[in-house]
């Protein structure tokens, strides 16, 4: 598998790329506006802070014309969606597209209801830079179909969603990432696998939401390649989880050690742990 | 006290019952829809995940017809109530009743305002399977009266609320649980005491809300006896708190160790720690 | 610097004052109503609980006439402001002013949008007992001007905002506190510096919001001098952070140890750590 990576980029480049982008987030401290669900706000803000970014949880449509132009990227997450929040999400997405500013969509439980799926499809049409979901969510978006999900948990492995991800990327123009035992990232042509992370992340709410916000921070500091930024953000979060797992006794201590590790990650740890390669 | 337990069920059965239900939650991973307050969403979702259930924090009325039929139980909590959230709570409750699906009500600070009390009374009329509150909340509901509370904290011990709990159970048809130094559970006739837990839980926000959600998960996997499911859920949460307390230095580390312990609980720990018995 | 402290009060008095107020919060357990942003609710409630206060996160305008009169102080925080929340904030503020009840304003990201700045200015006109913000926020309020902020993070040190704080205190009648490496507190005439705390607090979301709520609890138990209560609350939170930092490996473990330390603080630790003095 690793031997195929050279088709995309030399294997050795990925860990250095990931480190360079984390260092960029730390030095530039990009301002990331998050319009996100109630469950994830705390962990998402702390994830961004621990990575060196500056989070702003602003969801109010009245503020978007003043505020969004100052953000370096926007993260839109539909977790606890209600009709009153959707116009602000669309206004922020539209402004980002107009200003050439990156924005990232997290289509939480996209297939859980027709209301939710419709909202997602409308947002996808507004040209997100990146879409990150689990297998069920990406398949639901790709097929524009409900019923492929169990609440917010995926019933599909990420690797079952590769074709759906490629189709969604081609149709939307977004980089599409599918979280799972291996995180899959595709621009519709090449498919990269990011193999860092631990299974227990699934037992902590909002870790998926938080890595989407981290993707926004990475995309904000690497506008030349959103694909590389997405892969790097997923890997860095996964490495922090692996290091955190060594000290954890369960999901709650993993959550704490994950954030501490993300804050403390140094170049040596990143270079020795990042595990990225292209997939066939 | 323990010798009286035989009136209800053999003392030895309770620990095994509690373990069997936890094992059932882990193996069945019931989907629990939570319409809950903003403060508790994070800890509630993590409590459900650490116990093996699948939480979904969906509060939007537009989604209830699509989503609620797939949930295995629903948890409704009025903590940060506002008028715009109440219709969704009622719609979910009504759908549960129609479909024979269990739902659990947490009447946070029921007596704190007439608006809140009225909302609670309307929900109680919609036939919750279980109502769990602290002493002040249960007395407020039972007497349909405000002024018996200090914010969200109880000014009554659970044991002061036994008669109110029995009356409320008889009037509503719900299993009624009262949290306190001893957790009280009644179906209006028998009264069971669950003696696990630690006092410091009161210094952690949303632990009461979270145990209500855990009750929903237990009720979802034991539809034959909601009473037993409620008692078991309270005990399991209490045992996790006791084990967590051994490693804690204060409320924040207890919160972490509690969740870790709930995730890691094994049969031996449950059988040796569960302390349940009927009350006179 | 310390030698100047005698102009305001003997240096030795401050640590004892801070301890006495913490002891007062623990013994009186004031009921603190918080109308706050979604991000901070969890940490704010846990901060209040660990300090011995009784938090109530109620934001619904329908409940304010019933509930707010029972609160001992109110904390109003505009973090995730939307138009629908503002009337309740104003109703609570107005009721506090009418009843002579202390209330504290946290003007999060005051300069981030004209909507937000206008809301803040309207709240400032309703006579808060205390206003606590970072340097950028206090300067924005003092100059009634947007654009002086980067999201929720300050681009100014607290010491750059001393004159703005004094002007704001004089214009509003509030005690004004500016968080930073040194926390500044002024009544418009004297300026006190509270030097406890650690830099890593800036890497944890909602610590500023939470210390504002702690200020509300301290003001609730010392109505004779809001200035002293504010300085004491900031110091106590800072001392808890310093003690927590000794056990922390990063922002997430600091957050945990901070709350544990706040809960466990004893008189000896307070007396030996509090570092308060007047500023020139």
Automatic annotation (TrEMBL), chains A, B, C:
This is Uncharacterized protein. It comes from the Eukaryota.
